[in-house]
Amino acid sequence: MNQEQLVAELKNIVGLKEVIHKPDDLIAYECDGFTIVRARPRAVVFPNNTDHVAAVVKLLHNNRIPFIPRGAGTGLSGGATPINGEVLISLVKMNRLLSVDFKNRTAVVEPGHVNLKLTNAIAHEGYYYAPDPSSGMSCTIGGNVGENAGGPHCLKYGVTSNHVLGVEMVLPDGEIVTLGGTVPDMPGYDVTGLIVGSEGTMGIVTKIFVRILKKPQGVKTIVALYDSVDDASQTVSAIIAEGIIPGALEMMDRVAIEGVEAGNYPVGYPKDLAAVLIIELDGLTVGMEAMAEQIVDICTQFHVREVRVAQTDQERTLWWANRKTAFGAMGRISPDYMVQDGVIPRSRLPEVLQRISDISVESGLRIANVFHAGDGNLHPLILFNAANPGETELAVRVGSEVLQVCADVGGSITGEHGVGIEKQRDMIKIFTPEEIAAQVEVMRVFNPHNLCNPDKLFPKPSRCVEVKRAAHTH
Ligand SMILES: Cc1cc2nc3c(=O)[nH]c(=O)nc-3n(C[C@H](O)[C@H](O)[C@H](O)COP(=O)(O)OP(=O)(O)OC[C@H]3O[C@@H](n4cnc5c(N)ncnc54)[C@H](O)[C@@H]3O)c2cc1C
User: Fold this and answer.
1) Greater confidence, 470 or 270?
2) 365-422 pLDDT, tens per residue?
3) Does residue 89 sit in helix, strand or coil?
4) Whose CA is nearest to atom 2 of ligand 1?
5) 172 and which of 110, 368, 443, 452 could share a cystine (Cβ 3.0–4.6 Å)?
């Protein structure tokens, strides 16, 4: 099918204005938040409902044209980047909140529904949607399902997979299926669990059944300032070891603090600080005061320079705005930066941060650490200047070395940003070839012709073997 025919057929399905195909218009869709790799899609199509998605997918499937589901494009591992000139199926126009059942604490949304809008829409009844990525103002719940997104409050409440009860999905051949539903614990395999985090390689989610939660009765936010990263790390371990599970437990190191203080929401942290911890308690107000005092005590045991409990909502909001906009704020102190995303056992935090610091010194690239310390989910931000020859490649190498450190201590190469194209090669740091092959087999059950987001997630050599095998069997 030539380009002209394809565009005409797509317009026929979704409407004249819902297809982008002129080369210049496609530039905006060359990448997601992982900007190091860019490639132009063949077209971008904006379906308005599930039938549109199914018809578009059937057309592409029948003509063996590869395609990729795309939400807001805020992904940080290149999951929505069209490296093979795929057709992008953008879900941003399917953004309705379809229903809310307060009694049963569930809601049904379309995939393009922006994360924070769900909480805003149900706040008047005292409810909220728990997964809260820092990109919540723009990322979509469909994209959250794709990446199994997390966020600061996932320490206590869990990541996206803990809040998705079911999905409606268009399979890569255009069939529509519903997996799970609004009641928990459906019989049979947990196929919904398989879809959440599958990075758009198994089909296109067109409806999502989610849990909603009652807002906690009270919240107390504590900020603790340290002269040593080691002391801050020990504090994190000690709080959890005491049996306290805060709603959030976030940490920023010196370079990160320099960035956020240059950003749009400066708190006024002293310039010579080594680390900041934000510790948020939430839940019943009874006993919360005592727990906050206990945390202050623990901070003191680890030589905290200063520890403050937020006195007003305004103060708390500023601390969070400062933290949540940290990635963007790095742009103020470096021309370019790359966000890494690894997970480690919490108790290894001091040692891992030391090794990251060594990598920074050896490579000559500054690394800012801003992360969900409570669940051991690190986000080293590697600062570089793409204008300097070889520095982009160096940053990529440094990122991979950091992930090796995470793997060495029994951690993982991604906590919430996915593998996409960025970390395909890093998969072998934590999986054997057999383990990867088993995952590819599962993917193929859904996506036998490798049309739906091809060449993502799995390392290339194993994919080549698979593609060869597929060529023999289909
Ligand atoms: C400043 C900033 C802060 C961030 N903070 C966090 C954070 O705290 N926690 C966190 O987890 N992430 C964070 N992210 C990463 C990103 O926002 C998340 O990964 C988010 O889930 C991506 O959503 P999206 O709508 O932008 O999806 P996209 O980037 O468009 O797509 C992401 C993946 O999901 C797939 N996909 C999209 N829609 C569908 C669908 N309907 N069906 C099937 N697959 C689909 C795509 O193919 C792709 O593989 C941050 C990003 C930025 C830029």
Assistant:
1) 270
2) 999 999 899 889 999 999 999 999 999 999 999 999 999 999 999 999 998 999 999 9
3) strand
4) 135
5) 452
55, 206 Cβ separation under 8 angstroms: no
Is the CB of residue 133 below 6 angstroms from any atom belonging to ligand 1?
yes
**What is the residue whose two structure tokens read 């549109």?**
52
d(CA 408, CA 402): 10
Neighbours of 76 (CB within 10 A): 23
Q: Which of 48, 63, 64 is nearest to 13 (CA)?
A: 48
- Verify whether ligand 1 is closer than 6 Å to residue 370 (CB atom): no
Ligand 1 site, residue 90, Cβ cutoff 6 A? no
Task: Determine the distance separating the centroid of ligand 1 and the alpha carbon of 51, expressed in angstroms.
Answer: 24
d(CA 400, CA 30): 23
Give the number of other Cβ atoms within 10 Å of residue 452's Cβ. Answer: 28
Helices 349-363 and 229-241 pack at an angle, to 10 degrees, of 150
Could you tell me if the CB of 69 is within 6 A of ligand 1?
Answer: yes
Whether 230 lines ligand 1, by a CB cut-off of 6 Å, is no
For ligand 1, whether the C-beta of 29 sits within 6 Å is no
Q: To test the ligand 1 pocket, which listed residue (67, 129, 139, 192) has its Cβ within 8 A of the most ligand atoms? A: 139
Bridge partners, residue 378, by sequence: 342
pLDDT for the residue numbered 186: 79
Distance 73 CA to ligand 1 centre (A): 6
Specify whether the CB–CB gap between 131 and 150 falls below 8 A.
yes
**Residues 6+ positions from 219 with CB-CB distance below 8 Å:** 247, 280, 281, 282, 316
The per-residue pLDDT for range 25-71, each reduced to its tens digit, is 999 999 999 999 999 999 999 999 999 999 999 999 999 999 999 99
Give distance in angstroms: CA of 147 to centre of ligand 1.
Answer: 6
pLDDT at 461: 60
**Cα of 310 from ligand 1 centre, angstroms:** 31
Q: Report, as an integer, the average pLDDT of 160-174.
A: 97
Cα dihedral: 31, 36, 39, 41 (round 10): -10
Distances (CA, A) of 296 to 282, 290, 309, 316: 16, 10, 9, 17
Q: Which segments within 171-203 are labelled E, that is strand?
A: 176-180
Query: Contact at 8 Å (CB) between 372 and 380?
Result: no
> Ligand 1 centroid to 235 CA: how many Å?
31
Q: Give 323 Cα–ligand 1 centroid separation in angstroms.
A: 19
Ligand 1 centroid to Cα of residue 198, in Å, is 12
pTM over 0.90: yes
Using CA atoms, how far apart are residues 69 and 90, in angstroms rounded to an integer? 6
DSSP β-bridge partners for residue 276:
225, 252
Which residues make beta-bridge pairs with 374?
none
